[in-house]
Structure formats: structure tokens, C-alpha cells
Design brief:
The chain contains four helices and no strands. By secondary structure, the protein is mainly alpha-helical. It has one domain. The longest helix has 14 residues. It is elongated and about 55 Å long. The N and C termini lie far apart (53 Å).
Length: 85
Amino acid sequence: MEAAIQKKAAMFRLPADLIDRLKELAKREHRSLNNFVECILLDVAYSEPNDETKAAIAEARSGKLRDVAPIDTTSTESMFKSVGL
């Protein structure tokens, strides 16, 4: 038998249009607003990128990639060629 997760009520003031948008998104997934928001917050609070992703983010933010030729996405063949494959 699993232990019950303790929950605590909290009140937030959010813009009305944001609440409406969250309700729409929750409805699309056939979930309650509370469940939808709780899942989003759990994902943000407990999902941390691994070391490789953190390094890639740091590299992108550093500006080092600005001198790299863009990847040609006009076709699969062109894309492979532009990345050296």
C-alpha cells in the first residue's frame, strides 16, 4: 500500500487570461485544472538537465556557435552534407 501524499492548499493570483489558457490546455488533455497545473509545477521543480545538456546550454549562451555555419534543412541529404555526414 502506497503512503498518501500530503497536500497543502495554496492561493495564487494569476492573470485571468492565463487561467483561461490553462483551463483550455487542461480540457484538451481531459484533466482538471488543478492536476494540470500541479503536473507542470512538478516538472519544472524536479526536472534538471543532465551535465551534457547543461554544457550545451552554456555553449549556446556563450556565443561560440555564432561562427558555425547554419545547418541546411532544405532536404535530408542537404542536412547531412552540411553537418559533415
